[in-house]
Structures are given as structure tokens and as C-alpha cells.
Amino acid sequence: YTGEPGVLQRAIELDANFFDTAESYNAFGDEPGLTERIVGRELREAAAPAFVATKISARNLRYDDVIAHALASRERLGIDVIDLYQIHAPSSTIPITETMRAMERLVAGGVIRFIGVSNFNVEQLETAQDALYSSPLVSNQVEYSVLRRAIETDILPYCQEQDITVIAYAPLALGAFASGPGSDVIAQVGAEAGKKPAQVVIRWLLDHDRVVVIPKTDRPERVDELCGAAGWSLNGEHRAALDAIRA
Q1: Which part of the chain is the NADP-dependent oxidoreductase domain (predicted)?
Q2: Backbone angles phi, psi at 55, to 5 degrees
Q3: Which end of the chain, N or C, is surrounded by fewer C-beta atoms within 10 Å?
Q4: CB 77, CB 112: distance < 8 Å
Q5: Residue 85 has pLDDT above 90, yes or no
Q6: How far is the CA of 87 from the CAs of 61, 96, 245, in angstroms?
């Protein structure tokens, strides 16, 4: 997100209230955490309740670094508490026990509200859960779409069983839903349901238990289309047709 006028404001008008960013998201390439600053500014100007999530990079997962980076993200966002603080990716060198000790300190200190991870497999989720004592692991942000469904093998059922919310990034399969395998099926379902193809594939995700989505856009006119995935459900026939799609 690069701060185009009206994008976040329009999303809030349409009752969107979950906004995800990261310390590594840098809209213009020359200032660390710039996107956090932009999101924070836009949300303050909108003056509406929002659930704000951000992420710490895998290279910053040492205990002292986690504390320092969380405080820096909170300052850039301009909020009192980060609602969801996520590990952006697992580290192959820093013990998860050290990282989670810092995360629980942040919860206890009122800097963050919930602990999440991103791009964790089942084994890594189990290790992360075992490292937590006073706070649950509430989310795992992973790629998931009607065309990219690898998590259905093990990650999705594990998260559903453990009450871990799956935050689906790239829910539009980077645009492949419009021209890739199954695009004709998606278009037909949309025509029959009176919805646009993007709304259909996002709704398919939302109809799963414990799945939320974070579609990305920099265009105000696109916000209405994306938010139009809320407030309705696919019927059984349409869901079965989408379930049958394979990339």
C-alpha cells in the first residue's frame, strides 16, 4: 500500500476493519517501515476502529530485537497497542523459544495484543505453540486461494483443529483466477450468483472455517469490488464446482 487517497477510507466505509502490514513493507524503497507509517496515518485520519496487524522480519527474532522492533512498529503505526504481531517467516538460526519469550513479554507489557506467525508449516506451528506459556498462538498467515491449495493437506486442518486462524494472503492467486485453470468455472459461478469473479474466489475462502483473507489493492475503485465478497455465501452447487478446480 502506497497511500493513494481514499483507499483505506473507502474500505472503512464498507466496514472493513482488519489491516495487515509489516516492517519490511516499504512502498518507495528508501525508508524502513514506511508502509506502517502510511497505514497508521490513514487510519488515524479515518478515525474509525480498526484491527491492526504487522509483522517482524525473520532476521530480527532475537529477544532484544523483538522488543525493540515491536516498539518501533507501534510508534510508526501511531497506536497504543498492536492488535496482532506476527513473525513474518520462521528462522533457521534463531530458536523459536527465544522469540516467543519476547513475544509474551510484549503481551504482558501491553505492547501487543495477540501473537501470530506467517509461513509456518505444521512442525513449526507445534514448536511455536510449545514455546508459549501464557499466550496462545492465534494465527498463521499463509498463501491460500482456489488455485493454490497446498495448505489443505495439513496446515489448514491443523489450524482448524487448534483454533488458529488462517490469514490467507494472495487470495486472488496473483491474478491467475481470471485467466488460469478454472477461470471459466469462476466466471460462470459469478454470473449465476450475480457477483464478480474476484468476489467469488474470496467468498470461497471466507466460507471455510477459521479462514480470513487479506486482498491487496492500491485503487479505491477496487475496494468496493473486494469488499463485495462479504455478506453472502456460495450455494452448495457453486461451492462444489469451485472445490473441483485444480491448478
Answers
A1: 8-245
A2: -135, 145
A3: C
A4: no
A5: yes
A6: 8, 10, 31
